[in-house]
Amino acid sequence: MAQIRIQNVRKEFGAFTAVRSSSFTIEDGEFFMLLGPSGCGKTTTLRMMAGLELPTSGEIFIDGEEVGMKPASQRDIAFVFQMFALYPHMNVRKNISYPLVSQGMKREEVKTRVAEVARILRIEHILDKPVGGLSGGDRQRVALGRAIVRRPKAFFMDEPLGALDAEFREHMAEELRALHDRMGATTVYVTHDQLEAMQMGDKIVVMNHGVVEQFGRPQQIYDWPATKFVAQFIGSPSMNFLEFEGMIGIGGSSVDLGGVTVNVPAAREGRDGRLTLGVRPEHVKFRDDAAYRGRVSAVEYLGTTQIVTLSTEHGEVKARISSAQLVREEELVGLDFDARTLSLFDAESGKALLSEGNEGVLGHG
Amino acid sequence: MSSYSVTEPSPRQKWVAGILVVGYALITILPLVWIIATSFKTPSDAIAYPPKTFFTPTVEGYVNVFTTRTRLSTEQLQALGEPTTWYDKLVRKDGLVISGPSRFAERFTNSVIIGFGSTVLCIVLGTAAAYAFSRFKVPLKDDLLFFILSTRMMPPIAVAIPIFLMFRSLGLSDTHAGMILLYTAVNLSLSVWLLKGFIDEIPVEYEEAALIDGYTRFQAFYKVVLPQAATGIASTAIFCLIFAWNEYAFAVLLTSGNAQTAPPFIPTIIGVSGQDWPAVAAGATLFLVPVMVFTILLRKHLLRGITFGAVRK
């Protein structure tokens, strides 16, 4: 069990920079998600932690020890690959015991360990089968078995559920999380699926173009995105952006949105110029006497809620409201934004402005 | 690529296809049957016209291919007394005695040493090169691979004269080492390219998993990559062996007394008493055996090697 610390890690492949100066700390026993779109550098970051890639510069600490230049075999970690990487020429038992055999462990002890792992993962009945004929879920369990049998300092998983059916993924996600809670080992998990990250992670790092955009607990990241990218990437439908020309001074608690005054959390830094107001769809309320107006252009029914698309002076706005509320297309409605939940971004840099709401939770890594 | 028909062929179509395949097989196997049959005929049966389909088999051809014989006068034969061994008896009928072993066994051994030697060398070097090309960042990788392939672009015999001169000044003429090196050089491009394709197909995650499990790069290669590349290695080995085994032109040019292989030797068997076709056929039949056994043992892999790249898993 170990703390993992990444410091100013950078990775270049020839002229292409995959990771630019990332820093963050994963605490002992955390279930940690590396989240981002494909090509954002999350897998490269994980592979550097595991020792499958060497960083161009920067340091990686596992359990207080600098391991950046050490080969994978000396880091005492386990890796679960997306395509499982079970050795096809061995049966399940051999696959699971392989990491132990490499350490020269006694046969008796290997047997006990494998049996124990098989019991935890409930795969005792397939131990002597070849891996070729196994279902996706069983292969995934065997791959996990090979990882946990060693009792390593940390688990690294690269989209381990990516190859499974949607139906089965959810089940395996729960199983993984339960397994982690029972073992308490530090786990680093790469995914591009924001729902998976929110559902399973203790903490999330959001990456884009090789840069850590934000670092924090799922709720912090959802409520107070540090950049417009994070705001857009997390949540479905994503956060509404209303771009306008305006200003806000330090301590100011309202902005002028095209002649309408909108209350926002008190600002901790001022800005004058192009700003973006960020509103989550569930924080848009309909109020007939509200000054900000929008015309309903589409309604999407989702059971208990509905997504209403409105066209406003500042572009399209989506609202998630109760299905009980009757909405007609082409209707002109007043929109009210929940003042305590709003984010303001610098439209050029995309960075969130510090405010009473997000101060202290904007981890830029 | 055209798509496959999904309908099951009718029984009649299957019959027609079956008959065509059997017919084709019969035509292609006929020369082989002819050679094997001739090897068991007497010289007169072998050249009989019309050809004899049914004949009394004899192993005379096989005895002749392994021995040299001398013709003696009747008095000399009587002076020798009764023949003591079955093969002595066999040649005595024709008024001959065995004067010693022929060089066939020696030539055959040369073929085995040179054929298998070059195959082993080709596989070892080819696997190592293919693994490096497949997994590592090799500078000028594409140019190197093209260069390797380009050594196959002209018939090997086109460079026979330079090789002959090179071998002479290096002292490699008529040596086993020289022939092994030559056949390896000719086959290496095939072996690198074929094996690279097979190794490319093995996901790199297997090795990475092994690296994390605590194995060194070499152990990962040895314990994880090699077992999975077995099919590719086997089929490549067959191709290399068949080439080296059958090669004739270089063997004629570069070998004589010491390292001569069987292909240039067999035509010289044509014997002391007229043209001894059964002996030639016996030599050819024996020559077929090792490659045939090797191919039958590894036939599953061979099929996979031939269809390699044409069929997606």
UniProtKB/TrEMBL annotation, chain A:
Top-level taxon in the UniProt lineage: Bacteria
Chief place where the protein resides: membrane
InterPro entries xrefs: AAA+_ATPase (IPR003593), ABC_transporter-like_ATP-bd (IPR003439), ABC_transporter-like_CS (IPR017871), ABC_transpr_MalK/UgpC-like (IPR047641), Mo/tungstate-bd_C_term_dom (IPR008995), NA-bd_OB-fold (IPR012340), P-loop_NTPase (IPR027417), Transp-assoc_OB_typ2 (IPR013611)
Topological type in the membrane: Peripheral membrane protein
Identification of the protein by name: ABC transporter ATP-binding protein
Keyword Nucleotide-binding applies: yes
Domain ABC transporter: 4-234
Species: Shinella yambaruensis
GO molecular function: ATP binding
Gene3D superfamilies for the chain: 2.40.50.100, Nucleic acid-binding proteins, P-loop containing nucleotide triphosphate hydrolases
Compartment list: Cell inner membrane
Any Pfam family the entry gives: ABC_tran
Family: Belongs to the ABC transporter superfamily.
Keyword annotations from UniProtKB, A to Z: ATP-binding, Cell membrane, Membrane, Nucleotide-binding, Translocase, Transport
Automatic annotation (TrEMBL), chain B:
UniProt-listed SUPFAM superfamilies: MetI-like (SSF161098)
InterPro entries given in the database record: BP-dep_ABC_trans_perm, MetI-like, MetI-like_sf
Record has Cell wall biogenesis/degradation as a keyword: no
Subcellular localization, as worded in the UniProt entry: Cell membrane
Domain of life the protein comes from: Bacteria
Domain (ABC transmembrane type-1) ranges: 108-298
A Pfam family hit: BPD_transp_1
Entry membrane topology: Multi-pass membrane protein
TM region(s), chain numbering: 15-37, 112-133, 145-167, 220-245, 277-298
Principal location listed in the UniProt entry: membrane
Keyword list, A-Z: Cell membrane, Membrane, Transmembrane, Transmembrane helix, Transport
UniProt record similarity statement: Belongs to the binding-protein-dependent transport system permease family.
Stated name of the protein: ABC transporter permease
Originating organism: Shinella yambaruensis
